[in-house]
């Protein structure tokens, strides 16, 4: 009873090829979004549901059956059900023997259960090949297509063939699979969505270290050194001048760190003579957080702009300018008075004396 609609036209698979059937258990938000995306990418979808007749809003072209009927239609089953409701699977253990079960579930708290949801699933259905995937992709991102922020799908599992098949699906959906190893890694993967900004940790620490280093370097050069050698107190520089020197240095250093891993990767590929070998972990991680490094660099550049705009209105700068003006006005009026004096005009009885004061006050007001 398969319907075809514009929604379900294959984008990446040749329509003459036989469509691979994938089963999705659960017709909730995530199940529906994933089902629609997979239909669009050329898969044939069978939903498993507690109430196949009641299920509404399902994408056109998908079949809805009971859990046991749906399980028989495919050897790969994606579980879009919360962990707390996994119990019903124990009745299906026979049916699920040898099948690939994809666990996409998340928890509400970090380390909520002693074992990961994927490992729990593997215990419930020992005959199935459990693979963890998709938990870092939201239903909204799948629907809206706004996947730029979360293209990465972390995949792990004990059976390499099963894992490979899931990674193929991930690629077909236009996402990037990242092999995280065996099912033990599931616990960490399940914690990712609960950690605030996981990819921001390294860039954040790095920029903090850079700032502290350059700040102390500038303090030594511009505050401690003048104090020791000239007994000059320049501590006020620590508020604006020095940070305004640190921000652009940090921004440029971070920008360089955004481009550097690409160059290292290119050199490594040339050296190895192939682009099909994994980069070392440190380079992989560095490449993955380039966007964050770039955004922090942009933040520093922005701070540099604000501080640069603030500098001319600072008391110290205004005071220096005023002093300079007063000195200049005094000098010119002295020269002027001197030349008048030379011509025999009595300085203190002439109107120029008062005039000189006015010029000085006017200049101060202007500056
Ligand atoms: N929503 C999201 O953005 C994301 C969700 N996930 C994970 O996907 C899984 C599903 O999430 P989501 O679709 O949002 O959740 P929903 O609550 O929208 O859907 C859960 C589905 O589970 C099925 N189900 C099976 N047994 C039960 C039961 N006893 N009680 C209630 N429902 C049951 C139901 O389908 P039916 O009625 O057809 O039987 C239900 O629609 C969760 O594990 C979640 O952590 C992961 C990443 C993102
Ligand atoms: Fe500048």
Automatic annotation (TrEMBL):
It comes from the Eukaryota. The chain crosses the membrane at residues 204-229, 249-271, 292-317. It catalyses: 2 Fe(2+) + NADP(+) + H(+) = 2 Fe(3+) + NADPH; 2 Cu(+) + NADP(+) + H(+) = 2 Cu(2+) + NADPH. GO terms for molecular function: metal ion binding; oxidoreductase activity. Keywords: Copper, Endosome, FAD, Flavoprotein, Ion transport, Iron, Iron transport, Membrane, Metal-binding, Oxidoreductase, Transmembrane, Transmembrane helix, Transport. SUPFAM superfamilies: NAD(P)-binding Rossmann-fold domains. GO terms for cellular component: endosome membrane. InterPro entries: NAD(P)-bd_dom_sf, P5C_Rdtase_cat_N, STEAP_metalloreductase. Residues 21-107 form the Pyrroline-5-carboxylate reductase catalytic N-terminal domain. Pfam families: F420_oxidored. It is a multi-pass membrane protein. It is found in: Endosome membrane. Its main location: membrane. GO terms for biological process: iron ion transport. Its cofactor is FAD. Belongs to the STEAP family. PANTHER family: DUDULIN-RELATED, METALLOREDUCTASE STEAP4. This is STEAP4 metalloreductase. The lineage of its organism: Eukaryota, Metazoa, Chordata, Craniata, Vertebrata.
